[in-house]
Each structure stands twice: as structure tokens, then as C-alpha cells.
Amino acid sequence: MAASDTTATTAGRAPNRGLRWLRRNLITIAGLCTLAYLVLPNLVVMVFSFNKPNGRFNYQWQRFSTDGWTDPCGVADLCGSLGLSLQIAVWATLGATVLGTMIAFALARYRFRARSGVNTLIFLPMAMPEVVMAASLATLFLNMGIAFGFWTILIAHIMFCLSFVVTAVKARVMSMDPRLEQAAQDLYASPAQTFLRVTLPIAAPGIAAGALLSFALSFDDFIITNFNAGSTVTFPMFVWGSAQRGTPVQINVIGTAMFLVAVLCVVVGQLAGKRPKRS
Amino acid sequence: MSTTEAPAPPAEPEAEPLDIRKAPTRKRLVPYWLLLPGILWLLVFFAAPLVYQASTSIQTGSLEDGFKVTWHFATYLDAIAEYWPQFLRSVLYAGTATALCLLLGYPLAYLIAFKAGRWRNLVMILVIAPFFTSFLIRTLAWKTILADGGPVVGVLNSLHVLDVTSWLGLTEGQRVLATPLAVVCGLTYNFLPFMVLPLYTSLERIDPRLHEAAGDLYARPATTFRRVTFPLSMPGVVAGTLLTFIPAAGDYINAELLGSTDQKMIGNVIQSQFLRVLDYPTAAALSFILMAAILTMVTIYIRKSGTEDLV
């Protein structure tokens, strides 16, 4: 399996060139097959955004059409649910990032009682099946008589995003050189200045990673939202419902558009990240 | 190696966390203030609900008259007696999907870490790219890919693969949709990136000189992999299998969208008990059993694989 570098001995044993080539590139071929398996559904989503289905379901290719692209909001509630998802994702990201960063700093910088307890409390939500968290939080809301809707979704999203932010930021703060802050203080920076001008900029990539992860997790969350949304419809909830009622082409259009925007952001980010290194 | 000649490396200042017990009172409270809002959030909306859930699971009553705690532990026994097939199925499907993820994901992670070269960033983007489209839409795409009479089913049919899988009980007749194979395929697909990324992280840390050294010591590539590469990637294997198995065991989306009623997993039962049947005690008992089962399995697994420092 691990034909990382084919030596003369193994090559000599292979009976012909084709087989030898196969042996040498086995891992690459297997890896590319897996990559194809990962990318295939995205391609299908993209291609089927140009479909004109006969019935209510967009599962079979009929004929080419750009109807979905010219009228992306043509289905009732679709764009409303998308807007709601974006809104929740933004607020959840903000909440989880602020709360999570504070916890991460406390854990990375201070030794205090109940440290291991806090660590466990942070770890558990990530090690638990979503359906368990979802059902128990919904039980709490039911018992408290809190109406399901925007606020319950937001509370739930901040809850499960928090741990991921803590993990991302903590790793970054822990690997920070403490001498940089000492140097700032030696140069007569006040604690507030040190934090704003030295600590925060160094921790920024960790905070950004945590925030991005939160946004993605919140925007795409289905299971926890399913239990805590009541009759409020987020974008994943809309897609779930459409699997029963009929899948409009517009779902694929929005899926494809999201994909293109995200890829563009990554590519731009990569290029922007490369430039300062070269100079 | 002589230690006398080489000057001792300058003492790296340890990022030792501040011991607040020695600090003045005002400073001593800082970490607690930092922790307070976030921890309160987790206690109220994560820990307290679990306690509520525990009390709900031993309640009896009806929607009209309300539920009361009656220490009715029989709910647990009834739940297991009625839904053990779904529990078993969840473990089997999630286990198979995890094994497949490892099998498929390892070559890909290896490819990115050691062989991609200047293509590394592109391959990496392709691995995380699926995340950019809502996973429900992508799961629905599998309905198209595996459709009856579609190209995939056609090829599998002409190669007589479906005869073999039917004999194994994985598929039924000439179709893939609404069979265990479709559900496992969906689960594998959905959680594959969670396997590839930790595997890549641990493979990337391996010093390539170790491979050269193994080769210099006459290890064949297969031996190098078995004795050097794979053991060093164990943290990634453990993290990847956990990140795949835990969510897959509680998942109900793939079983709902790609399976039929014969492929329902425990997540489907919890969801329908909670949201449709409104039998809250049963739903609570089931999710507690699921949680306990997963925590037990994970603890044993982490002990056995000897990577306790991972968590």
C-alpha cells in the first residue's frame, strides 16, 4: 500500500512497465479516486442547477435551462430562509467568538481552580452526538415554556460553536512567545496597550479561524436547528422540507453560488497571504 | 554526542500560565471574569439541559395531563427492547462508514502530505470545498448519482457488483437507493473530510528524513509504512475515527434521505419520538442510552489506542 518510493528491487519484480507504473503511483491513484468521490456531488449540484425538471423533484436530467439562475428567489420562502440563516450565522459567530476568546485567554494564561472542569465542559459538546444536545436543549426550552424561534436557534448555535472557538484560539495563544509581551511592557506600554497592540494582533489568526469555523457550522447546521426552531425555517430546514415537498432548481443555484463565492474567498485569501512573504 | 562542547541552548522561557494564587486580589479575579459569561452559557444551555433530559427520561404522563417524575426506569428497558435493531444498525453503519473513511481518506491525506508538491494547496481546497455547499444539498445529490437506472447503478450491475452486495444483504435487487449501501455511502461521504484533515495534520508533521533513514536501513516501502509512517500517524487516526464515528452514530439525515424505513438509525427514532410522536420520556431515554454508549466506546477506544494525552 505504501509504495512511497519504489526501489530498484520492487521495480525489478514487476513484470511489465504498466504494472510498474501502477505500483509506483498506487497511492496517488487511490488518493485521486477519493478526491473524485468528495467532489462528485458538488459537480452534480452544479450541473443540475441548469436542469429543467419535469416534476417537482430535481433528481433526473431533463433539459438545459437557465431558469433557476435568472430567478433565484422564484420559490416562496427560499430567499427568506437564506437571509435568516445568514443573520443567525453572523450573530452566532459574533457571540461565540467573543465568549470563546475570553475563555481561551483565561485557559491559556491563568492557572486557577476548576481548570480541568472547565476543560471538560469545553470538550464535551464536541464529543457528543448533535442529536443528544439538540433534544436536551429543546427539552429545557419546552419545560421553561420558552417559544421556539429565532432566539432559541441563536442560543443553541452560540452554545455549540463556543467550544470550537475556544480550541482554535487557545492553541494560538499557547504557542505565543511570552517575551513579546514582556518586551512591550519593558518599552513602557500600559497593559491595555500591550493587549491591543501586541497580544490581540498575534492571536488574531486563531480568532479568525474560530470565527470562520463558527460561521460555517452555524450556517450549515441542521440537526440542532431542527429540534430548536419550532416553525422558523432556516436554509437547511428549507432544503430538508423540500426533500419531502419537491426540490426546486433554485436550491442547486444557491448551493452553487455559495460554493463559487467561498472558493473565490479562499483563492483571494491565499493570494493575499502569499504576497507579504515574498517581499 | 558530546555534551561538554555544545553550549547549552538559551533557556526557552516557558509559557507558564500565571499562578493567580500569588497575585493581588484584583488580578486574581481576572480569569474568573473572563470565564464567567461563556461558562455560564455552557452550564445553562448545555449542562443543565442534560440534567433536565435525565429527569425527563424517568417521567411518565401524557401531553394533556403533563409529565411528572415517577422514577419510571422501565422507560429505558422498554426503549432498548423496542429499538435495539436501530441501535445496532447505528453502530454497524457508523462503524462501517468510519472504516471506509479511514481506508479512503488515508491515501488522500498521504497524497497531500508527501506527494502533492505544488498542487498541495489546490488539493487541500478541493478537500474542504464540499463544506462550501450545504451538506443537505450534497446529500440530495447522491439521490441523483445513485438513482435507479442511472450510470452508477448501470455500471455496478454490468460488473455484477450488485449481485454480490445483494447476497451480502447490502442492496436489494437492481437498486442502490433505499438500501444500507446507500446510507453507508452517504455517511462515508459526509464525514470523509473529518477523517482526512486530522490524518493530514499528523502525517505532515512526520520528518521526511525518517523515511530516508528507514530506506537506508534496508526497509522496503511497505515496511517503512508499517513500522514508521503508520505508527507516527496514530494521533490523526484516533482523532479522525472519533470525529467520524461520533457524529455518524447520531446522524439521521443520511438514513432519512437515502434509506427507507428498513434503514432507520437511532437518530431517526429520537427525532420522530421528539418532534412527531411527542413522547418526550422515550426520546430522552434513547438519547441518554446513545450518549452513554458512545462515551463508553470512546473511552475504551482512547485507552486501547494509548493516546490519552490527545484529549
From TrEMBL, chain A:
Species in which this protein is naturally found: Streptomyces piniterrae
Extent of the signal sequence: none
Record protein name field: ABC transporter permease
UniProt GO cellular component terms: plasma membrane
Statement: the UniProt record of this protein carries the keyword DNA-binding: no
GO terms under biological process: transmembrane transport
InterPro entries: Bact_Polyamine_Transport, MetI-like, MetI-like_sf
Bilayer disposition of the protein: Multi-pass membrane protein
PANTHER family recorded: PUTRESCINE TRANSPORT SYSTEM PERMEASE PROTEIN POTI (PTHR43848)
Parts of the chain that traverse the membrane: 26-50, 88-108, 120-142, 148-169, 195-217, 223-241, 253-273
Top-rank taxon: Bacteria
Localisation per UniProt entry: Cell membrane
SUPFAM superfamilies referenced in this protein's UniProt entry, alphabetically: MetI-like (SSF161098)
Coiled coil region boundaries: none
Family to which this protein belongs: Belongs to the binding-protein-dependent transport system permease family. CysTW subfamily.
Keywords assigned: Cell membrane, Membrane, Transmembrane, Transmembrane helix, Transport
Listed Pfam families: BPD_transp_1 (PF00528)
Record domain ABC transmembrane type-1: where: 82-272
UniProtKB/TrEMBL annotation, chain B:
Gene3D superfamilies in the cross-refs: MetI-like
Keywords: Cell membrane, Membrane, Transmembrane, Transmembrane helix, Transport
Domain of life: Bacteria
PROSITE patterns for the chain: ABC_TM1 (PS50928)
Key word ATP-binding present: no
Ribonucleoprotein listed as a keyword: no
Membrane topology, as annotated: Multi-pass membrane protein
Record-annotated membrane-spanning stretches: 30-52, 91-114, 121-141, 177-200, 228-249, 283-302
GO cellular component: plasma membrane
Subcellular localization(s) per the UniProt record: Cell membrane
Main location, first listed in the record: membrane
Domain annotation ABC transmembrane type-1: ranges: 87-301
Family per record: Belongs to the binding-protein-dependent transport system permease family. CysTW subfamily.
Protein's recorded name: ABC transporter permease
Origin species: Streptomyces piniterrae
